Amino acid sequence: MSKVGIIANPASGKDIRRLVAHASVVSNRDKANLLRRIILGIDSTGVDEILIMPDYSGLGSLALAGLRQGKLQARVSMLDMPVKGTQDDSTAAAVLMREAGVDCLVTLGGDGTNRAVAKGDCTIPLIAVSTGTNNVFPVMVEATTAGLAAGIIARHIVPHDEVITTQKRLVLVEDGVDRDMALIDAVILDQRFVGAKAVWDLAAVREIVCTRAEPQSIGLSSIGGCVSAVSANDDFGLHLKLGNGGRRVRAPVLPGVIEEVSVEECATIAIGEEVTLMHLPGLIALDGEREAILTANHDIRIRCDRRGPRTVDIAATIRKAADSGFFISSNGHRRA
Predict the structure, then answer these.
(1) Chain-centroid distance, C-alpha 135
(2) CATH at 31
(3) Could you give the CA distance from residue 59 to residue 226 in angstroms, rounded to a whole number?
(4) What is the pTM of this model?
(5) Among 27-31, 228-232, 308-312, which is the least confidently predicted range?
(6) Does some domain include residue 336?
(7) What's the domain count of the chain?
(8) Domain containing 127: what range?
(9) Average pLDDT for residues 143-159, to the nearest whole number?
(10) CA-to-CA dists, residue 334 to 41, 70, 155, 274, 329, angstroms
(11) How far, CA to CA in Å, does 147 sit from each of 8, 119, 130, 256, 327?
């Protein structure tokens, strides 16, 4: 039985960066519409079951409104789980999706949403659709297309090893113990309180460690990209130290905001390598969200490895399915 899971974050795309920058807002009605198109795309491939994470805004129920009256072949249901209204919901849902035997997982959110999902599971093939603010990890894609690709993966229409890549991640290590993780960047701030989760004040940024650094991205990782670009496929990450007296670098750090910062040092980090964070005590932000105060009396390191989520190449998946004749009706791609 083929199954696709969907985790949609109603809070993505609504943080304080809408006030301090020029980011757009993705309303819950827009997200429900995206979700509806994803469901229809999945269903058209002949998948047997679709599982949706429940949330405090009822995105899944809103998306399904009007679709239950004979329009869907797949069995669609909401996960049986408590809703806290925090990122822990996404983490718990990912665990339940794995236990339910989901073959492919679709997320709607930003870097923070996908980090929360990855903390629950990194093994299910993932299609990450962008609806957040600083989106380096998820992709901008038509929702219908994302649903088609998810269904194709779930039904094993194309060889997984040809279209799925295991991504890098950053692991926060405290006194030799893995404590947390990030998919794109870990940032040390010269601050002593968490406050609003989102990071927008560059004056407080002291160190940046990132799995990828691309100048066309939006966010703090773009600073590294404007110095020494690192792609998702490169087998190394980047470690930046900011401060006075370094190279002056202009980068798109927020939507509509290009700022100049001083980069004192820039070095690559090999897969499996750990770097010691020097600017402590300080506040650490993971994938753009403040998480915890780190003190100087602990050994704090960041390890770069390739044990992150297994992401699906959407275009390659659909192209290979088309080449196999999957979309030709005579081949009968509906459920047997």
Answers:
(1) 8
(2) 3.40.50.10330
(3) 38
(4) 0.91
(5) 27-31
(6) no
(7) 2
(8) 3-167+308-331
(9) 98
(10) 13, 16, 10, 48, 9
(11) 13, 23, 14, 30, 14
**Mean pLDDT across the stretch 317-334?**
84
Residue type, 176: G
178 and 157, same structural domain? no
pLDDT (0 to 100) of residue 245:
82
Q: 70 or 180: whose pLDDT is higher?
A: 180
Rounded Cα distance, 74 and 62, in Å:
17
Pull the structure tokens for residue 16: 């304080």
* Exposure letters 148-185 (e unless 16+ CB within 10 A, then b): bbbbbbbbebbeeeebbbebbbbbbbeeeeeebbbbbb
Cα–Cα distance measured from residue 138 to residue 217, given in angstroms and rounded to the nearest whole number: 11
Q: 């915890």: which residue's tokens? A: 292
Residue 290 — very low, low, confident or very high, per pLDDT cuts 50/70/90? confident
Contact (Cβ atoms closer than 8 angstroms) between residue 170 and residue 180: no
Residues 202 and 104 occupy one common structural domain: no
